[in-house]
Amino acid sequence: MAKIRDRTEDFKDAVRHTAVSLGYNESKLAAIMASFIIHKPRQRSPFTKAALKTLESIGALEQFMLKHRKDYVDLHRTTEQERDSIEQEVTAFIKACKEQIDILKDSINDEEANTKGWLGIKADTSNTDTIAHKHGVVLILSENLHSITARFDQLRAIRFQDAINKRIPRRKLNRAANKNTSSVDSSKTNILEFKEPDEIQPEPLGVQQQLLDDETHALQVELTSLLDAVQETETKMVEMSALNHLMSTHVLQQAQQIELLYEQAVEATKNVELGNKELSQAVQRNSSSRTFLLLFLFVLTFSILFLDWYS
Question: Which sequence ranges are marked TM in the entry (predicted)?
């Protein structure tokens, strides 16, 4: 068995002598010799750069949510305007990441359409594996973004529930105060009814004060009822806003699923059309082969008869 010799040093010497003969200076020669030790990193494709950028955006979104989670959930740390600004920034983050993922999907679809042959059959197996790998990358990015979106929906639900719980006790206290004032007024009227006729003769100032108190109480009751109605409407609006956001999130997920099903249906339709073309071509080949076989048998039979007649 022949021994294997390492010719790496010989190759380096040959490269060094060739570089010296070509007139390379010491710096260029050192760079060439260093390239044998330190290899240059491979150039990343535009898809890989875009995917890494999207991953960094999703990571930045997650860090932003972890940083402002307590500020968004705790009602005593920040104001409503600050929580609304946090929600708007997170929504903008999610929208930007979703657009980047859609761009990656479009690039994959374009590449997949360009790799198909004239019959729509994928010829290059290595390119097919690359496209499948890219689909997996996009799926992982979509799942990461969906998990972060689900966590933000939970935080938003906690915020809306705290807002609802904050308004419900206030409404109960207002109703209890109304009941107490009504009971006090009824007790006052009962006391006046049970007084003797001599005691019911009030002074003019007392009558005016009583009328002002009655009007003030009536206005207070009316304003309290209006306040209850406004608070109840506000609570319903908050609940409707939360339900609207949850519904929009589910509609977005269903839209993505419908789009995926549509793409699969289009792909299945193309495959059926290709299968029909292949079947029609097979039928044509079969009919032509039958015609050729019949023609061959006819010529062979005629040749045998001719040779028999000639002999």
Answer: 292-310
The string of pLDDT tens digits covering residues 135-176 is 888 888 988 888 888 888 888 878 777 766 766 655 555 555
- Give the pTM: 0.48
Is residue 81 a contact partner of residue 138, using CB atoms and an 8 Å limit?
A: no
**Please, which residues bridge with residue 116 across strands?**
122
| Residue 57 within any structural domain of the chain | yes
> Is residue 41 over pLDDT 70?
no
If you search the block for the tokens 């977005």, which residue do you land on? 252
Please give the radius of gyration of the chain, using alpha carbons only, rounded to the nearest integer: 42
Contact 84, 156 (CB under 8 A): no
The answer to whether position 9 is within a domain reads no
Q: What is the number of domains present in the chain?
A: 1
Q: Kindly give the interhelix angle for 204-310 and 125-193, rounded to the nearest 10 degrees.
A: 160
Q: Which residues pair with residue 196 across a beta bridge?
A: none
- In this predicted structure, the answer to whether residue 305 has a pLDDT above a threshold of 80 is yes
More confident residue, 103 or 4: 103
Question: What's the CATH code of the domain at 51?
Answer: 1.20.58.70
- Residue 107 exposure: Cα atoms within 13 Å on the Cβ side: 18
On whether residue 159 sits in a domain, the answer given is yes
